[in-house]
TrEMBL record:
Pfam families, per the entry: Fn3-like, Glyco_hydro_3, Glyco_hydro_3_C
Protein name in the entry: Glycosyl hydrolase
GO molecular function, one term: beta-glucosidase activity
Keyword Transmembrane helix: yes
GO biological process: carbohydrate metabolic process
Spans traversing the lipid bilayer: 770-790
InterPro entries: Cellulose_deg_GH3, Fn3-like, GH, Glyco_hydro_3_AS, Glyco_hydro_3_C, Glyco_hydro_3_C_sf, Glyco_hydro_3_N, Glyco_hydro_3_N_sf
Family: Belongs to the glycosyl hydrolase 3 family.
Length: 809
């Protein structure tokens, strides 16, 4: 214990208080002992420190900060060093704003394209996600700030995210949903981790000892602090017992009182609390050191870095007839509302108050192009406007090339709500189909944070996907269009032909309480390649204005070596991707899995020998019989290529194995051995789980862990009436094309989280009373709510008085 001397001086009340938040973003300060408060802030792609009253949804304005491209964008760069640079900038701006812990990056797996928060996550592949996250973390923490990767773990949907149980087998948990975090901890050396809202196999992530103690601390050696997501604590006593430390945001002192009571009743040892306090003190004192701040010149450099990140992360998806780059003096028409008001970041808690935002319509006249005009063309909110469409069509007729800016709007993808489909708003596609009738030369500039269906792609000769490209992305798109920048982005996720082709189609998001991960390890390209499903754009795909030749593959026990040559007449960057497969495997496997990559810049005509090393993750799999990582013996295919389907060279290597007991029977698990996992039976899923599928039905009385939206089943007429009011409001917002994050949060919040999110006004005793009301015992329940309110207020005042009076001694 590093801070035993201080801990010995602390009262139990002080210890318990230190493990709960004091405000929306701050921890408790204990002035008697010289323990200051530390400040947390959202910051996956820009610091969001709120200037006024704090709220975790980003509803109130925040201080100006650089808005970098989102994680889903920067992951397309396949460049962890770029992530490191962005992390350094985030750390510097955190210092300038007095932020101690940056709540990010987010590295949950893109299990399904409809997850509303995919724009915050790196990839469908855990290896790429982990490597990119480690880069961010190293950069942030190099500035004396803590990074807090999130959400640990198996958080792949927004629907009822606080009251959902992820049912997943141990092998899939380890290989897909934890590997990225493992890399973030072991290679990025993250000093904080944020737990997710959901349950994992029936136990809330924040009180899951298997996740927090067995894996995170004991196996990975993590010695930092574990923080709940905001309102993500179910039972603070169980959380601390399992290895969680800080409950946020502000549960008042009710949770602290629960800890004290648990110690007195012998349900938790004070030494366990001391361990959490020791970790908190280490963070507090480390983060209380003076750190360097930046000035306007520093923010200018960060804007330049945001531009670089957008430029290196944009993906050239299509370039028919080499329409791009456009030659000087090409007559162009710039069409699309996104050219005027760019879609450059996501919605929800990650919204950044950008220091500046560049607009394509304001920059295009500074290029070498001859601009015949600009027009919006479509309504951002949807619907057809005949006058706007005619103006766009008339303008397109005058141009040699149309630059069409379109994509998903702010309402289409957001924290708090999953998407209903993978389509772009129809009015944008309708305009595109009208434009192509008068001008065949259309270059599309896409803005979206996650995969979309693209049945209209034949209307475009060129497609540049900028994703959500941050505050300086408009300039980067124009520089790619004009050839100042050679695009080098590669997709971090697969683009299926249609949503119906996705592996988790029938299992996403959840049915009532349970989200069943029946697809197992077959996520993204692991499924499409193995099951031979045709895709529109494969994982790792991206075009360049030059060409690269691969030759002379050498495979040895340490890794691979290959020669890459830029055979074109333009300088450019290529990402060499290493995949591993095993054709005669006795355990089921995907056809190939990403196990290494390297991005290299080559001048025209230049050749370079590239080395990619094998590591401890190259050949391993999780054996559920021995409960450890093992290696299957035999011959492996070593594949090197430009994307997961464009494999340029293949070699072989024989590996000595460790497996003596093989965990699966091909006869019992035909879906998993074939990779055709869209219709996994209950029996087969139970074989994978190695246990019975848990009952996830909503039935009987509602309890504190049920969500407000489940009051549909309430016995109380009043509760059902409140449910109808909230549901009608949501429906009206949907009809108007609006997203009300606050309303969504209220609709999906579990009852117990109300006690964690109201600044101490509501206690768990009061929530127990609310549940009685909801379950039809109005007067008894209402009485408990009223008496609980006054008791909670009195106890909070008494507790604060103790904290302020020499620790209560």
């Amino acid at each position: 214990m590093k801070h035993k001397e201080i801990i010995d001086k602390m009262t139990l009340e002080e210890k318990a208080a230190l493990l709960s938040g004091k405000g929306e973003w701050q921890t408790w300060n204990l002035d008697r002992l010289g323990i200051p408060s530390i400040y947390c802030s959202d910051g996956p792609h820009g610091i969001r420190k709120q200037a006024g009253t704090g709220d975790h949804l980003g509803l109130n304005p925040s201080l100006p900060a650089t808005c970098f491209p989102t994680a889903a964008t920067v992951a397309n760069s396949w460049d962890p060093e770029l992530g490191d640079k962005i992390g350094q900038a985030l750390g510097q701006e955190a210092n300038t704003q007095g932020v101690d812990i940056v709540l990010g990056p987010g590295l949950n797996i893109k299990r399904n394209p409809l997850c509303g928060r995919n724009f915050e996550y790196f990839s469908e592949d855990p290896y790429l996600a982990g490597k990119m996250a480690a880069g961010y973390i190293r950069g942030i923490q190099s500035q004396g700030v803590y990074a807090c990767p999130k959400h640990f773990a198996v958080n792949s949907q927004e629907l009822r995210r606080m009251a959902m149980n992820a049912v997943v087998d141990e092998r899939t948990l380890r290989e897909i949903y934890l590997t990225g975090f493992e890399i973030a901890v072991k290679e990025g050396h993250a000093k904080a981790i944020m737990t997710s809202y959901n349950q994992v196999n029936g136990t809330y992530a924040n009180e899951n000892a298997h996740l927090l103690t067995d894996i995170l601390r004991d196996e990975w050696g993590f010695d930092g602090i574990v923080i709940t997501d905001w309102g993500g604590s179910n039972d603070h006593v169980k959380g601390v017992q399992a290895g969680s430390d800080l409950e946020m945001p502000n549960p008042g002192l009710d949770s602290a009182r629960q800890l004290i009571k648990a110690v007195k009743e012998g349900r938790i040892k004070e030494s366990t609390i001391d361990n959490s306090v020791d970790r908190m003190l280490e963070a507090v004192f480390e983060l209380s050191q003076e750190r360097e701040k930046i000035d306007d010149k520093g923010f200018k450099k960060h804007n330049d870095l945001a531009y670089r990140a957008a430029a290196e992360s944009a993906v050239l998806l299509k370039n028919s007839d080499n329409i791009l780059p456009l030659k000087p003096d090409t007559r162009v028409a710039l069409i699309g509302d996104f050219a005027y008001v760019p879609r450059y970041q996501g919605s929800g808690s990650s919204v950044v108050n950008a220091t500046s935002v560049e607009h394509m319509n304001m920059l295009i006249n500074n290029t070498t192009l001859h601009v015949v005009g600009c027009t919006r063309g479509y309504l951002r909110s949807g619907g057809i406007d005949a006058i706007m469409e005619k103006a766009a069509i008339d303008l397109a007729e005058q141009a040699d090339v149309v630059i069409y800016c379109f994509g998903l709007d702010e309402l289409s993808e957001s924290e708090g709500v999953d998407r209903n489909h993978m389509r772009i708003p129809q009015n944008q596609i309708h305009l595109l189909e009208e434009l192509v009738k008068v001008n065949k030369n259309i270059v599309g500039v896409l803005s979206a944070g996650s995969a979309i269906e693209m049945s209209w792609h034949h209307c475009l000769k060129g497609i540049i996907h900028g994703y959500l490209y941050g505050q300086a992305g408009a300039r980067a798109m124009l520089d790619i269009i004009t050839g100042k920048i050679n695009p080098s982005g590669r997709l971090n996720e697969t683009y299926p032909v249609r949503y119906e082709d996705t592996p988790s189609l029938r299992y996403f998001p959840s049915v009532e309480r349970n989200s069943e991960y029946r697809e197992g390890i077959f996520v993204g390209y692991r499924y499409y390649d193995t099951a031979n499903i045709r895709v529109l754009y494969p994982f790792g795909y991206g075009l360049s204005y030059t060409n690269f030749k691969y030759s002379d593959l050498i495979v040895n026990n340490d890794g691979i070596r290959i020669t890459v040559t830029n055979t074109g007449d333009v300088d450019g960057a290529e990402t060499i991707q290493l995949y591993i497969g095993k054709k005669d495997a006795k355990i089921f496997r995907p056809d190939k899995e990403l196990k290494g990559f390297k991005k290299v810049f080559l001048k025209a005509g230049e050749s370079r020998n590239i080395n990619i090393d094998f590591d401890d993750k190259t050949f391993r799999y999780w054996n559920i019989i021995t409960s450890k990582w093992e290696v299957e013996a035999g011959e492996y295919q070593v594949m090197v290529g430009a994307d997961c389907q464009d494999i340029r060279h293949t070699g072989q290597i024989n590996i000595d194995g460790t497996t003596t007991e093989y965990p699966y029977s091909k006869d019992h698990m035909p879906s998993y051995f074939s990779g055709n996992i869209q219709k996994v039976s209950d029996k087969e899923f139970e074989e994978l789980l190695d246990r019975t599928i848990p009952d996830g039905k909503w039935r009987g009385e509602l309890d504190v862990n049920d969500a407000v939206c489940q009051m549909y089943y309430a016995k109380s007429a009043l509760a059902r009436f409140i449910y109808k009011i909230l549901t009608n409001k949501l429906k009206k917002n949907e009809e108007l094309g609006k997203t009300d994050l606050n309303l969504l949060f209220q609709y999906n919040i579990p009852f117990r989280a109300i006690a964690k999110m109201t600044g101490g006004i509501v206690s768990m005793e009061m929530i127990d009373g609310v549940m009685m009301v909801v379950n039809g015992h109005f007067f008894k329940g209402f009485g408990i709510v009223i008496t609980g309110f006054f008791r909670n207020r009195r106890l909070n005042k008494k507790y604060i008085k103790k904290l302020n009076s020499n620790g209560g001694k």
